[in-house]
Amino acid sequence: MAQTARTVAANNIVNSGAMVAATVLLAGLVHVGVSVAETLLIVAVASIGAAYISWLLHKACD
């Protein structure tokens, strides 16, 4: 049970770091004048890229 709690805690720390990095990146994009629509497009493209990488990793495990 303690190992599970440590794993969840580590996952929370990694997720928090990713949220901070995304916020800093978004602030930088807004600072240089990127619009909301362009920001959403960037997020959509990044999501497709993440899905593709996940698919490749899943395929590699088979």
Characterize the structure shown.
The chain is an all-alpha fold and 62 residues long. It folds into two domains: 1-31; 34-62. The chain is built from two helices and no strands. It has helices at residues 2-31, 36-61. The two termini are 29 Å apart.
Q: What is the string of helix and strand elements?
A: HH
Give the assembly state of these chains.
single chain
Largest sheet: number of strands, sense, barrel closure: none
Q: Span from first to last CA?
A: 29 Å
Overall pLDDT metric: 95
Number of domains: 2
What structural class do you assign from the helix and strand content?
mainly alpha
User: Rg to the nearest angstrom?
Assistant: 16 Å
Helix content: over 70%
- Figure out the total of helices: 2
Overall outline: flat
Number of strands: 0
List segments where confidence is low: pLDDT < 50 over at least 5 consecutive residues.
Answer: none
> What fraction of the residues are assigned to beta strands by DSSP?
under 5%
Tags for this entry?
62 residues, 2 domains, flat
What layout of secondary structure does this protein have?
Blueprint: H1 2-31, H2 36-61
Summarize the structure.
Helices cover 90% and strands 0% of the residues. The chain has two helices and no strands.
